[in-house]
Design goal:
With about 170 residues, this protein is α+β, with helices and mostly antiparallel strands. The protein has helices at about 10-20, 30-35, 40-50, 85-95, 120-130, and strands spanning about 70-80, 100-105, 110-120, 140-145. It folds into two domains: about 10-50, Winged helix-like DNA-binding domain superfamily/Winged helix DNA-binding domain (Arc Repressor Mutant, subunit A); about 65-145, 2-Layer Sandwich (Alpha-Beta Plaits). The chain has five helices and four strands; from the N terminus they run αααβαββαβ. Strands 2-3-1-4 form a four-stranded antiparallel beta sheet. The protein is elongated and about 55 Å long.
Amino acid sequence: MSSGGIMKLDAMDHDILEILQREGRITNAELAKRLGISPPAMLERVKRLENNGVIDRFVAIIAPEKVGVGIIAFVRVSLGAHKLEDFENFRDHIDSMDEVLECYQLSGEDDYLLKVALADMADYANFAFSKLAPITGVQSINSSFVLGTIKQDTALPLLSPVKRQS
């Protein structure tokens, strides 16, 4: 399988991924027991999923308020001239900004959508005026601030293969 292609997942792979997305710290032995295979066979399957890039990484999800993050902002950015070097320059700058959690290049009116985590409004003002606005090519910045979270999930919906027989 090429690194950019889609890996064919069987029902066992699907079940493994469903569990790991919700319980990333589950032990290999517990995962194997739950799905009815041996621990060595489970370890081989998980390693194959990792090696093929299906499992990108394991992370801890941290409560923002417990580490001083008081504001989550969604920031829409438009570049002016749409020159390749401006896009590359923007991406290089964003990649080095720890407060930017996610950055998406968009179609439509705005060129980028950023998800940004900051301590407070003063921190946001510093980010917007001292870090983002000075990037060559940035024409406009429009921000929306999260007032409350209705749903937040990290688990991707998986296309369901035929279910395994238990």
